[in-house]
Amino acid sequence: MSAIDLNNLNIAYSSVQVVHGASLTVNEGESFALVGESGSGKSTILKAICGLNDEWTGEIKLYGEKVDPRNRADISRISQMVFQDPYGSLHPRKTVDTTLSEPLAIHGIKDNGDRVVEMLNAVGLDQRYRFRFPHQMSGGQRQRVAIARALMLKPKLLLLDEPTSALDVSVQAEILNLLKQLRKDQNLTFLLVTHDLPVVSFLCDRLAVMKKGKIVEIATRDQLAKGEFNDAYSQELYHASKHEHVA
Amino acid sequence: MSQKLLEIEDLRVTFPTHQGDVEVVKGISFDLGRERLAIVGESGSGKSMTGRSILKLIRSPGRVTANKFIFDGIDLNKQSERQMRKLRGARISMVMQDPKFSLNPVLTIKDQIAEALRTHQKLTRKELDEKVLHMLDQVRINDPARVAKLYPHEVSGGMGQRIMIAMMLIPEPDLLIADEPTSALDVSVQAQVLDLIDNLIQENGMGLILISHDLNLVANYADRVLIMNSGEIVEQCNASELHKATHPYTQGLLNAMPRIDETRDELPTLDRTQWAAT
């Protein structure tokens, strides 16, 4: 079964159309990347999928069921989002424990904090971080909390919006390893938005290249590794990433 | 490099805390000609503090000391705040990390860029407008006339950064300090912006200090590289020889990056305890 089906998805913000007829299928358990420049509509697609924006026409199906943007609770049990900026996406005056418990409270799940302990372990954070505030942690640790929060409701699909672009390379490596491990352990499906092709190569099976709101090409990781793109724009993107690599 | 643009010897930046003074830059020395120098390191390595201290932008209670601190024959140690203001922007300018916090939210793009120019030069309004539009065009903004009228919240992060670069390059300074100038940009645009900075530097014979955590980027856009870790320069090399770097910290950084034809199952991470003691 496919995890995500987008069929002729059009998204507009007031009068400006941002995404033009996007169609793609992400299989269950797959890790799929959306790449493209800023303003190409990749994050917009992510927001539409998780119900943060309901100004769209066309069809979005998650695990075979049509998404109804008015029913956010259902969507958020299936799919969760991790945002780019770990400094901006955590509430500064709430402890890690409160942040992680909130999704459970909203969905009326009774739990004695076991899930919080479990998720902290899963993302490789020591229990002593449980009652800390975001400002008492580093960027990498905060991103771990954001990932833990996304996993609290046991979603099957994780939407990742540039999860490592705000982090140092060595911390990025840790978070990428963590995401890869979590995907294996919990059998998650990833939809990753990024403009970093090497990250795609490490974490994803397939990618869609977007330009000005349109999907111009869908390629596999092998094609990416060899630079075998058909579309001129994908080629350009590939060369821009390729030429700035040292080793 | 016969003519030195910047000479720094034993630069230290300290901040007082309840636990005593913390030194974030621990006595570094380097020279800069009209060349491209990169300072690489992770967050907290002191690279941005080094950049800021050149402009004397470290606010009290932070302290900057140096045995030798000379920019183009001017002793920066002896400059008053008022004299520094004449240097900043006109002779040395700095591109900051985050356009969201570095642009004035209540000025239009045009007014903001014009302000950078007006502070240092007398120009008629028509000349100003022309220069601003030309600069916006140079940083590859598609519709300069439209964008010039926008406010910072109306442009994307990538555009904001290009606007800031336009603002910093328009007075044609001698030394440009670029603190993570492209970390908010797309790869394709990154190359364009760096090429642009590169062109301007070569045309005007400027010096560049490129502060970045991105080793790949640095390898392509700098002549020399200083690698910093916890306030010290751990290694210096030519950018072309970066892959031959020997220090374990540099190697750790190089290895931690995913490659475009990645085959490793897990990325090696830095063992921070290894040199924390040194």
From TrEMBL, chain A:
Q: Which residues cross the membrane?
A: none
CDD domains for this protein: ABC_NikE_OppD_transporters
User: Entry's SMART domains?
Assistant: AAA (SM00382)
What UniProt keywords apply to this chain's record, in alphabetical order? ATP-binding, Nucleotide-binding, Transport
Where in this chain does the record put each ABC transporter domain?
A: 4-237
Molecular functions (GO terms): ATP binding
Carries keyword Nucleotide-binding? yes
UniProt KW Amino-acid biosynthesis keyword = no
Matching SUPFAM superfamilies: P-loop containing nucleoside triphosphate hydrolases
Which family does this protein fall into? Belongs to the ABC transporter superfamily.
PANTHER family associated with the record: D,D-DIPEPTIDE TRANSPORT ATP-BINDING PROTEIN DDPF-RELATED (PTHR43776:SF7), TRANSPORT ATP-BINDING PROTEIN (PTHR43776)
Write down what this protein is called: ABC transporter ATP-binding protein
- Species of origin: Maritalea mediterranea
Q: What is the lineage of its organism?
A: Bacteria, Pseudomonadati, Pseudomonadota, Alphaproteobacteria, Hyphomicrobiales
TrEMBL record, chain B:
**Its topology with respect to the membrane?**
Peripheral membrane protein
Location, primary (coarse class): membrane
Concerning InterPro entries, the annotation shows:
AAA+_ATPase, ABC_Ni/Peptide_Import, ABC_transporter-like_ATP-bd, Oligopep_ABC_C, P-loop_NTPase
Q: Per its UniProt record, what SUPFAM superfamilies does this chain match? A: P-loop containing nucleoside triphosphate hydrolases (SSF52540)
Which interval of the chain is the signal sequence? none
Q: What are the subcellular locations of this protein?
A: Cell inner membrane
Key word Nucleus present: no
Gene3D superfamilies noted in UniProt = P-loop containing nucleotide triphosphate hydrolases
Q: Which UniProt keywords apply?
A: ATP-binding, Cell membrane, Membrane, Nucleotide-binding, Transport
Per the UniProt record, one Pfam family is oligo_HPY
Record GO terms (molecular function): ATP binding
Domain ABC transporter, residue spans: 6-255
For this chain, the family text in UniProt reads: Belongs to the ABC transporter superfamily.
Record's protein name? ABC transporter ATP-binding protein
> What species is given as this protein's source?
Maritalea mediterranea
